[in-house]
Amino acid sequence: MKPLTLASVAFAALLTGPAIAADMRVGAPVYKAPPPAAYSWTGCYLGIEGGGNWGKSQHFENEPGARTFGLAQTAGIDLSGALLGGTVGCNYQFGNWSIGLENDLSWTNKKASAGLIPPFVVTDKFQTSESWLDTLRGRLGFAWDRWLVYGTGGAAFANEGIELCDPFAGCGGLSKTVTGWTAGAGAEYAFLGDWSLKLEYLHVDLGTQSYPNIYPGGIFANGANRFAQRNVSLTDDIVRAGMNYRFNWGSPVAARN
């Protein structure tokens, strides 16, 4: 009986051994590397930006009592120029959403002129120009890891200038700081830790500004020669690219990689 018993035990061990090993394999813990941390847009940043600036302007006579009061003096002035400046801002990300505040200040050489139309003196030319532009905007964006797509809007400030020229009386001009609004959209991509590139469109409306009489300074000018009071409208359409460096204050170190 002993040989039979030993054989039975050996046979049972052969049958149960694989099952026990299989149970051990199924129940054993599996160790995986943790997923990489998602990029965080939280933090403040500095940057540079530049691009093109296009827009429209119109001069309207605003001389009280004139029979041409309120009439457009040109067929419209189409302005264009370059744009270059700096940016500062901060973002805070919660989930996939990001909110922020951004300010930029840019130099621009946007300007153009046009001749007058009847019933005004058609030999005269009027110019509108813009020498700098500042926008202060909120941003609301949706983030996919290193991509951020956002809408933006807020206040705009600019230096607006006008110049009025008559072939006999000469030229005269004025400039002032004007205020308006801006809105637009853009996309930004983060790379090399805290650097990012962005592409952005902004529309800026600087409203209609009033200017007093302007006295030209040509060789034929005298105290009686003057350009009438006027209202001048001005808009911008801006397409620009930029590069930002984010300081990553208050954001996890792992999210910087």
What does this entry look like structurally?
With 257 residues, this protein is mainly beta. It has one domain (43-256): Porin (Beta Barrel). The chain is built from one helix and eight strands, in the order αββββββββ. It has one helix spanning 2-27, and strands at 43-61, 77-94, 97-115, 125-144, 147-166, 170-191, 195-211, 230-246. An eight-stranded antiparallel barrel has the order 1-2-3-4-5-6-7-8. Strand 5 (147-166) and strand 6 (170-191) form a beta hairpin. The chain is elongated. The termini are far apart.
> What is the beta-strand fraction?
over 45%
Structurally, the number of domains stands at 1
Tally of extended strands? 8
Main sheet strand line-up: 1-2-3-4-5-6-7-8
Shape: elongated
| CATH topology heading | Porin
Structural class: mainly beta
Gross CATH architecture: Beta Barrel
Low-confidence stretches: 1-25, 252-257
Q: CATH first level: which class?
A: Mainly Beta
| First-to-last CA distance | 72 Å
Approximately how much helix is present in the residues? 10-25%
| Rg | 34 Å
Return the string of H and E elements.
Answer: HEEEEEEEE
Largest sheet: 8 strands, antiparallel, barrel
Mean pLDDT: 86
Q: Helical region count? A: 1
